[in-house]
Write a structure and sequence with these properties.
CATH class of one domain in chain A: Mainly Beta
Largest interface: A-B, 23 and 16 residues
Oligomer: heterodimer
Strand content of chain B: over 45%
Helix content of chain B: under 10%
Radius of gyration of chain A: 15 Å
Number of domains of chain B: 1
Number of strands of chain B: 4
Strand order of the largest sheet of chain A: 4-5-6-7
Distance between the termini of chain B: 25 Å
Largest sheet of chain A: 4 strands, antiparallel
Shape of chain A: globular
Structural class of chain B: mainly beta
Amino acid sequence: MAYYVLNRLLRFSSTGQFIEEIADAEDPFGWDGLYDVVVDPGNNLSIVEWFGHRVTTVDQQGTFLRSIGSSGFQPGQFNFSRGLTYDAAGRLVVADFSNKRIQVFEDATLVQALGTAMDGPFGTPYAVAADASGGVYVTDWGMSRIHMLVDPDLVPAPEVVRKPRLS
Amino acid sequence: MAAPLDVAVRANGNYLVVAGADTSSFVRELTPEGEIVREWVPAAPGEN
């Protein structure tokens, strides 16, 4: 569980029993706006930080593995990163909120960016979730809309957009 | 739709959306085609 207000990353059992707290091993000031955490295909934890503008991956013991992103609008940078998921192909999909785009990483390398601040189609992408068929849903806070991505060339329509294939 | 905040995909392929605003909030389950399957809304004050 990522706890945004207190910047604490806490591990609980499936029955809700508190197990431990995972600290930020890279930054002596700790996490910076924890917003989401997911388990990657290798059973590591990937954590997104709203104010830190990065995604950090640690192993199950909390040992730092890697961090991607920094503050900015260039490819691979984030401007208030908010939600993340791994798609069916094992790629990391990040909602880059204020850059109004979705960025896709494979082995910590940017492989695709969907959307631009000027041309859309995203208002402010907030959360992402992947389905088993390769699709990714995006909640768009600013546009009050759900985008369903199958093909990066599709232009989203109101409410639900067709499926993406993020490749 | 109120501002959608979070989304999750169910094992059956439907997806759940959490949306909220000052005046309304809900959790809604939709099919991939966008049809609403069910919706959960907060109880009004005084309701169980």
